Structure formats: C-alpha cells, structure tokens
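Researcher: Last one for today. Full complex below.
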Amino acid sequence: MVRNKRVGAKASVLAAAAALLLTACGGAGVDAEASAAPSGDAALAECGSYAIAMHAWVGYTASAQVITEVAKANGCDISQVTLAEAGVTYDAMESGSVDLVVEDWGGGRWQEWADRGALVEVGDNGNVGIIGMYVPQWMADKYPDITDSANLNKYAELFVTDESKGKGAWYEGPPGYTTIGEKLVSANNLNFTVLPQGTEAALIDVFTKAAENETPAIGYWWTPQNFLAKVPMARVNFPTNDWTDAAEASGLTDYPELPLIKLATPKAMDANDAFTKIVKNFKWTNDDQNAVAADIESGTDPAVAAQKWIDANADTVAGWLK
Amino acid sequence: MSNNSSAISVKNLWQVFGPNPEKIVDSPDARLPRAELREKTGNTAAVQDVSFDVAPGEVFVVMGLSGSGKSTLVRCLTRLIEPTAGSVVLNGENIMEANAARLRELRRTKFSMVFQNFGLLPHRKVIDNIAFALEVNGVSKEKRHARANEVIELVGLQGFAYAYPEQLSGGMQQRVGLARALAVDPEVMFLDEPFSALDPLIRRDMQTEVIRLHEELGKTMVFITHDLSEALKLGDRIAIMRDGAVVQMGTAEELIANPADAYVEDFTRDVPKSHVLTVRTIARPLADSETATGRTIPADTIIRDATAAVLDANGPVGVVEGGNIIGYIKSRDILQVVGGGTHA
Amino acid sequence: MSVRTEPAIKIAPKSIRRSWLLGGLLIIWVAVAQILQGKATLELAVPENSKFTAWAGEVADSIRDNRNDGLAFKYFFNPIREFVDGFVNIIREFIAIPNGSSSIPVLGWLGVISLIGFVVFAVSNVRMAFAAVALTFACGALGLWTDSMDTLAMTFAAVILSLAIGIPVGIWAGLSDRVLKVVTPILDLAQILPTLVYLAPLALFFLIGPASATIATMVYSIPIAVRLTAFGIRGVPTSPVEAGTSMGTTKRQLLRKVQLPMSSRTIIMGINQTVMAALSFVVIAALIGAPGLGKPVIDALIIRNVGDGFVAGIAVVLIAIMLDRSTSAAITKKDTFVPPSEADRKRRKLALITAGIAAIVGIVLSRQMAWAAFFPKQIDIGSQVANASDSAVTWVTENMELLTAGLSKAVTVGVLNPLESILANSPWYLTIAMITLISLILGGIRSAIVSATLLIAVVATGLWYDTMITFTQTIVATMLTMLVGVVLGVWIGRSVRAERALRPILDAGQTLPAFVYLIPMLGFFGPSRFTAIATGILYSIPIVVKIVGQGIREVPVNMVEAATSTGSTKWQLITKVQLPAAKKSLLLATNQGLIFVLAVVVIGGLVGGGGLGYLVLLGSSKPELQGKGLVAGFCILLLGVMIDRIAQYMVARNSAPKH
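Model: Here's the assembly. Have a good evening.
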C-alpha cells in the first residue's frame, strides 16, 4: 500500500516533467512578435550568425559595437566573445567560435593561422595604431629633454618605486597587448626595470595618479584611445627604424605606426551576406572611434553609443553595405 | 561423531594474513607469538589449524577474547573471507570447492548469518530487510513478503514490518537481524557476537529468545561470543579460542570441571560452578562413617537445582545414572561448590 | 607499550635542536645571499625564450600545424571537441542562446525561473525553491541574464559530463583497491594543480571556445566526483556489506541494493562539490572562450572598471549560493533514510503537482509572451550597483589610504622584497641548496631529494627566476594566511558561538571562484604583487580556518581539563596544550593554504603579480612565447608538487611518533 503511494508520487513527478518538456517543444510564439518588432525597414536579407571577438580596450569595443549594431539591423545574429588579443583569438577563429577581429595589433602574428586557412586578412579598418612610451605632461614641461630616449637614464632615479628594484619603474602594457618594453630597455641600455602591468586599468591608474599628484611615471600607451584627451601625456621618442614584425622587433626601434587590420574567418568571408559586406567595407577614422569610445567611457551603454554614431553617420554606414 | 552425520565439519582450517600466507600454514612459525611472527614474516595467523564438527540441531559456541580469531573463523566458514587452507563441509558438500555461483546459492538458501552490528540496510523497511535474501534469489515480491511476515511473527516484530531500522531500538534491530537470518529457512545459522552491542538486560532477553527459537525450530547454530556466561547458557558445546587456535572444546561442564590450561581456568574462574556443573562431577563413594538416606537424584541434575533436595535429605543422596548409583553427595559437598571451595 | 614510548620522550630535545639548526641555516642563507646579491639569478627577460621554452614552442607549433589533418586530431581530439561542442550547445540553446532560427532560447526567462523553482523544490524544499527563484531573478536584475544563463548552462553541461565519467570511475575505485591505487596519484595531482595551468595545453588540442572550456572544466571537476564517489562507496559500514554478501548477492546486486543507496549521501555531496568546482572553473575558463559571467569579470580585470566586474562577481556569487544551497538541501534530505509520514507525502505530492503546473504555465508563457521571454530591461540595477561599488572602492582608497596603500607598502617593503632578494635575487645554487637542506630538516631525506630534483628541473626549464618570484609570493601569502587563519581557527575551535558566527562566512568564502576576489582587491590595492598576495590570502583563509578550528576542537577534552586543573592561563592553554596537540592540523592547514594560495597567486598575473602566472597569460596571446607560457604552467605544477611533498613528509613525520 505504502509503496504504491510512493510510486504514485514518483509517477506524478515524471508526468509533470514530461509535460514540461512537451510544452517546451511546442512552437515558440514569441518569435512572431520578436521578429516583427525591431528594424522594420531593414531588408530581411539572409544573414547568418557570427561571433565577434571582443578585446578589452574601449577603442576596440567602439568599433566592434558599431559593426554589431549595423549587422544586427541587417538581420545578422551576432554574439560577442571576450578574449585576449592575438594567439588566443586566432585559435578561437580556427575552432570557429569567433568570426571577426575588428582591429588587430598583432604585428603579423596571425600569418601562421592564415597559412592553415583558419582566417583571412580583410584589410585596413581605417584606424592607425600608434604605440609608445609616455610620460605625464608635467614631466615634459619640467624636463623638456626627457622626451628623447637618450636622456632617460639621466632621470631614471626619479622613477624608482618599491616594485622596481632600485632602477626606474617602466610600466609595461598588459600581456594581451603588443609590447617590446624589455627589448627597448636592453637595446637602449636603459637603467629601468620593466614592470608588466596586467591590465589597461592599471596603466590608467598609474597615469591618472601621475598627472594628479605630479608623480613621475613612464609607461606604455597608444592611440586611438581617447584617454590622451583627458590626461595629457608626452610621448618619449626612441630611434625609429623599420618595424614590420612584432616578434622580430630588435628593440633598437620605437613602436611603429600600425595600420590596424581586420581579420575574419573564411566562413564569414565566403558567406557573401550582409555580414560579409560590412566586414569587407567597414572603415572609419581615429576620430570616429574616439567619439564612440568617449561615450562608452563616460558610462553610456556601448550599444547606445554605437547607435548614436550610426544615426549621425548614415551615409558612411550605407556605404559599408554596398 | 562422524563427519557424515554432522551438519558442519571443519578440518584443519587456516587463515593467514600477509605475504605468502600458504607458507605459514603448518609451519613451525605459526606457533610463534603473534608479534614475533609479524616481525619475522609480516604475517598474522588469525586462524590456526582449527577443526571441529557440529551436529545437526546443535548450538556450537566459539568463545574467545577480541583478537582471538573467532570472528575471522566464522567468516571463513561462509567464505566471506577466503581461508588459506582447510576444508568446511556442509551437509556433505565441501564449500571450499564451490564456485562463485554455487557459493551464492549456498548463501541464499543453506546458511545465514547474524552480525554484531546488525548489518541492516537503513534504506529499506524491516520487511524488505528480512526478505532481502529471498529478493536477491529472485523470489517474487508476494511470496517473499508472505515469508517475511511469517518470521516477523516468529521473532515478535509484529507491527514493525513497515518501520525503518533507525526507528527501532538496538534489541529490536537485532530481532530483524534474526528474522532475516531465519527467512531463508537455513540449514545452519552463524551468529557473530549478535548481542554484544546490546544492553545487558536486553541481551538476556535476546538470549532467551534464541533459546526459544532453537527449541521451536531446531536450527543448527554456530554462535560466536566473548561472553562466557552467554556461551554457557546457549552452547551445547563450546570451543575456546586463543591467538587463532582452539585451546579447548567440550560441554560447559567439561570446560569448567577440567580446564585444559591456565588460560581456560582463568577464564572460568568466576563462573558460579553450581550453576554449570552437574551432581555427577561431585559424586563420591560413600564414606565408612556415612549411611545412605535412600533418596536419589539423576546424575545430570545441575548442582544448584539439586541443592534443596540434598539439604532436605539430611544425609548422603545417591546419584543415579542409567539406573545405577554411581556415587553419593550430601549437603557439605554442595556447600563446598557453592562456597567456591577449590575443586580438584 | 614500554617500547613505543621511548621516541616520544626523545622528541622534545630533538625538536629544539632542529629549530636551532633551522635558525642557524636561515642566518647563513641571509648572509650569503647578501654577499652574492644579483649573481647567477638566471633571470630571463620576458620576450626571451630559453632553449627549453623554445623547444616547447616548436612542439606546440607542430601540434598546431597538425590540427587540420593530424591523425590524433582527426580521430580523437576533433571528434571529442565536436561532441562536447554539440552537447554544450544543446544546453545553451535551452536556456541561454537563441535556439535555432528562433530569437530566444527554448525557455525564456520566466520559463527558466519556473523550471529552476520546480526542480529545486523537487530535490529539496519549498524555502530553497523560493530562494533559488529569487537568486536567479536577481542575476537578471543585475542586467546579466544572458551571461548568467550561459554560465549556468556551461556549468550544467560540464557537470553532467563530469558525473557521467566521474561517478562510474569513482564507483570502480570504490570497489577495487587496484583501481584506487591507479587513480589516487592522478587525483592528488589534480588537487594541487592550479586552474590556470590547464587552460593553455587544453586550448592547444581543443582550440578556443565552449568545447575547450567545458573540457578544461571537466578535467578540473572529474577528480572531485571520482574522489567523493569512491570515498562514499568505501565509507559504507562493513556489516551491511558483509550481510549482503552473506545472503548471496551478486556484485551487481550488492552495489545496486546496498552500496549505492547507503553511499548516496556522500555521492550527492560529491555532486555538490563537482557543481561548485565546475562553476568556479567556468568563470575562469572565459580566458579560453567560455561564454558567461567570466567575460565581464575579465573585461573588468583588464580594462573597464571595478564596478562592472563587481556586478558580474555578484552574479557569480548569487549563482554559487543558489547551486550550493539547493544541492546541500538535497544532502540534508538524505540525513535520514526514513521517508516522511503518509500525510506529509500526500501534502508534498499535491505541492509538487501544483508547482509543476505553475512551472508549465511559466514555461508556456515564456514561449508565447515577449515580456516573459526577454528579461525586462526596466529591472536593471546593474549600473547602480556598479556605480555604488565604484564609489565605495574610491572612498576606501581615498579615505583609508593608510590602510590600503600602507598595508600594501608594509608587506611589499617589509616582507616581499627582502624575501625576493633571498630566494630570487641570489644565486640559484644557493637557493636550491638551502631549500634542500631545510626540507631535509623538516621533512627528512626523501623530501630533500624530491625538492632538489624538482628545483633542478625548474632550472633546466630556464624559468628559474620567474618560478622563484611566484614562490616568494606564495610563501608570503601563506605566512600571512596562517597568521590570520590560526587566530581565527583557534577562536572558532574554542568557542561554539564564534564557530556559529563564522561558519556561514567560511562556507560562502569556499564556494566563491578565486576570480571573483581579484576584483575588489584590484580596486583596493591597484595592480601590484600585493594584490595577487592579498587575493591569495582572502581565498585560502576559509579552508585554513576550518582545518585549524577542527584540529583545536579535536584536542582531547581530558588533555584540556588536565591543563586547566593545573592552573594554566587561557594563553598557556592555547600555546602549550591546544596548538601543540593540534600540530598535525596546523601542518595540514599550511599545506592546503599553500596549494590554495599558489592557485590564486598565479592568476594574480592578471593584476600585476608577474612571475609564472604572467608568463602563462602572455604565452596564450603571443604565439612566439607560447612555449614559454606552457613551460611556465609546468613550473607552477613542479612548484605545487614540491610544496605538497614537503608538507606531506612533514605531516607523516609529525604523526609517526604518536603511538
């Protein structure tokens, strides 16, 4: 008797579970509503689903978000995957979990993956990347010759901290970024210790404090990045040379100006849908990117910031879709 | 007692733990004290050359202190532990030769076991615990529950069939243990210190219960205990184990009357002999100065039970066995035993 | 008796001699290190490869080259990846990502919440069900519905696959001594392997993405499932097993009818642990492309702000609490085998049916109505929470700078730098010699051999300097952890009230992924080695406190009573009786503390910790340093094994003369 009751209870749970599944399998009524709601004017062009690699810096977020919004408006299904730069992202493209890198700073490291057919180069995105070593503006004002790398050793003592082992502290970029600090230091015989900063936030922290408190600091920075507009800094010039391959850079050179490129999977480029067009044609200026980045940084939701720019630059966007 | 008529016949059973156990069997090393053997070879000879026969319907008690090997011995008898050497013959079948399937069958039908810690399955109701052996043997639910209900009645567990073990007291749990062992109607029951986890009062009840069940069902039992009074109370015959070997085997009376060595004597010292010995053991020839009273008592009367009659007689009473008077006793003889006077 | 007591008497002078020896050794070490400062440190510049790391890089390259048509890839790695990928996707499409051509997952938010409520109610109780619903809803309210669902889906996928492998293997190891012997060293190794180490090698074979993340998570959580299942099977009391056997069960019957039901509590506990391990790993696996809450956490760590990361961290915590509490409620339910009374069962059946109907309604609604499908945007307090936490952190750093910056500076200048100068900035041979000698004194000859071998292996890899940097941070963090942990442990060991007060905090602390701790620490201390250390301390304190507390509580009462009756003060009682008696627990706590700290200190590479962790991260994004990253992971492993071995030998040595 008792047993039978228990069986009954179990059966009722099973029945409930089955019912849950059945209802779950029925057609989803939401889709009719959902697909009717957004972007009525967008040509309901066939467009697949794609994943865009997201990198941590705001400039990248701006570019990626604009592409995301434009592609979504054209019927593509876009997801974003946050990853570190270069190697990890290329592997992700090879596995098919990422289809697009909006701006690659990798300095040609992707070639090996391109050779294996994991990704293709899609050309410049219009932004030019400039990496360099910077000091706060007040230092450049106070010690005008500090912006020449040859004079850095003269001031090395100013930069000493608890972390820097008696030499000057050299705040290096995060591990996911293109950095050659150690080579610069050794090739130019600088009396500095390279301190790898794990994050961009760390660098912002260093430079903000250096400007506010007039403390000495030298660190890695780059444009396009609207931070320079907020906290003025001066670039330290190193002897320049040809610099094409990050891995092979000798260190006797400064970081080069780097036309930033787009990388995409063959799948995305062969589809020939709206996404393919957008990826192929996407191009904008450093100012464009900085405008969107500034909005994002001031707390605007990236999607909203991107949409604002899209609305203001309808012609440019229309050009990408041709 | 010949092998053929025994329920169980155990011959030269050995259980040696450690490396190369076979080497220890029958070797002089086996006789070494435990610590020395372990030092020398790394072995422990838990059971050493044990042989005995149990007659059908007999209650055979194995008694010893902890570490004496008695629990290992009983596990060897059912091959819960594989013995190192020797044979165990159950109703003519040497179970050492049984393959895995046959062994399972024997366990399901021919013998059963009661454990010190009850060994009940906490996730099953009393009735399903009792019917477990039948269940694993593929007996239908209806049949096995019917049988379980029979034994529930038998051991006095009425009303508890649908309770869970943890809802029962220790004594009741062991009743479940007994019922479970009886459910398969085994030929032999092995009871491994079944009552030593119980309170003394409940233990006494349970002992009485076992005696009652034995009288009703006449099962052959091998009963393991460390408690001499329990052994004396229940055992038709008793084997005393020490360090893996049987030091003496016999009826209660034989052990008390003639301890084989100091160890057994030490063991039996505190037993009130008048409760165990029969008048036969103290019967003596009539002294010259005495005159028989003409009263007689049977030789197998326990001394305690004879007390009233002998004191009443006011003179020597004849001890009768097989129609003949084998000797006489009088009140002084009895008082000597009861008073703990040394007994030759 | 009389023979055995002798060594116990001798132990006192021996240990005094030992500490003199140690002290002398340390003085010599410091002195020599000063003289030879900066010599033979084997420092390898970050962009440089050693011979060994260059070789490892070539191996990695050739593995990558084989991805398309290598046999191992074609017939082994790729099929596994595809299977796992497919499996993960099914689950993600159920609750997290758009299902096929639809714009929503199979279940919209209301459907998911209803289902969670129903399932939690079915396995535990109504209070837990409501709590689970509230916690899940809160994740949505933080504006992280989709990410939370992705994390949940990834966790479930990994848990299901882990249990599918872990429970059978665990059962096997529970039944067979031989299997246990084979798996034990693997399980031990898995336990001391920091999470960060798995990622790069697995990504090499399974690439980047949800599949790789799931497989990495499985590698992490399967050992836990195996260990607890085996433990459960072995923990079944002997007498029911013997009773079962004596009644002629087959092995299968014995397993199914006796061993499994009786170990179900432990096995469910194992499921709980597996779930928590999987969750914490899924968050970290964002580094190799796991979707979900790990993304915003990493974003926050790398760039944006403490606030956003904090919000994501809270969501992780909410999910952790939900999963932990509901699975533990299922454990408590197993405390007794006695089912509830007839009336209760009837009531429960009714409740289940009601809940089931409610869940079905929720699910149907979530598939028909937009408001029930897409989590309402109006309910989004994420940015408020982010701002609040931002300003809280700003306030703390501005107003309590003495505490944050002061603490950081004190530890860095006072402990970290001096120790680093001894371990890392003195000649390698000096460091190896000294560590070997110390482990000889503390753990005996075998531990000395192990230390020397492992350290020489580290030298051979070329990453000696970075290893010593990480080792230094690990030691400093462990010292501080033990300092705090022993105080708190003694406190909860002696006071039931303290135990009751701290217990929930410790439990919560243990369920949180290490990653989550990094965010507030980064906020308070900025990017530095100290942030890595502080995070390590915070992460390992709960386990240390628990072990020490238990050790103190287990000191025999009569020992304490005897000491009290001879008039000991409280302080004497603690230092002369309880702590010495709990020595084994202290060692065990140190060992666990070291392993936990190591796991976090390497993640500290993300926030300026440098050392091996930084190299691992660097290797994953810079192909030319890939070999270096892999070897750095290997060095972390060597370090972990060395620490563990020394501690194990110490424990063995200290527990030997007890009897």
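The interface with chain C takes residues 75, 78, 80, 103-109, 112-113, 115-123, 132-133, 135-137, 164-167, 180, 184, 190 of chain B (CB under 8 Å). DSSP finds 14 helices and 13 strands in chain B.
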